[in-house]
Design brief:
By secondary structure, the protein is mainly beta. It folds into three domains: 28 residues; 97 residues, Sandwich (Jelly Rolls), CATH 2.60.120; 91 residues, Jelly Rolls, CATH 2.60.120.10. The strands form four sheets. A five-stranded mixed beta sheet has the order 1-4-9-6-7, with no helix packed on it. Strands 2-3-10-5-8 form a five-stranded antiparallel beta sheet, with no helix packed on it. The N and C termini lie far apart (70 Å).
Amino acid sequence: MSTLGRVTRIATAAAVLLACQATEARQPPTGSANEPVEIEAEALHSIQLVNSVVRVYEALIPPGAQTLFHTHRYSGVGIDMTTARLIIEKVGAEPSSFTTKAGDIFPANAPEPYIHRVTNAGETAYRAIVAELLQAPRVSPVSATVADTSTYKLELENDHVRVFRLVLAPGEIAPRHTLSASSLTVTLSGGQISIASPGAAPRFVSVAPGVLEWHADPMTASVQNIGASTYESVYFEWKPATR
């Protein structure tokens, strides 16, 4: 074989090797503990809302199903929408199991990003909605506190957010309340409500569990339950210092 032929074959082999290496480099994460996926790439998580302040995602895990290992990068607050039995496998920690309770509010915080996967070990689907604050530094987890006896009950507060719960019996009216800018409403139970703001005609709204409403500007309104069943919702109010 001529020198030119040998050089050509060497160059071709080198090109093939580089192409193979490039292909391997482009392979997506496997969802293992060593190669976790981002939340938006995890099939049992879905992004519901994103803006410059928050990202809201829903986790929906059928009975017996298991997520891939995925990374949590932001602090936030979550709501358990259903009661289910979960097994949590966090990288660097022993597996843990617990039972969620529908309507519970929990801090989704950690001092550092963490990787875990979740198995639904129960007989009912697990659903949760989590709002992550994109601009806040991470903090250690905080416990929920019940500090308010008004219609809007303060259930959790930390350096970044206040979380209020509103529960109205049929026909009941919540007094006028003002939410600050950058607040989020999550409906926990379906029904029909009337929202009355100063200087505006009442809005009549039919809602379902898990419906989100983002308020970019301050909002003052009273709410009346005009349906036949109890209405329940949660309000996330991000503190100005975090924006």
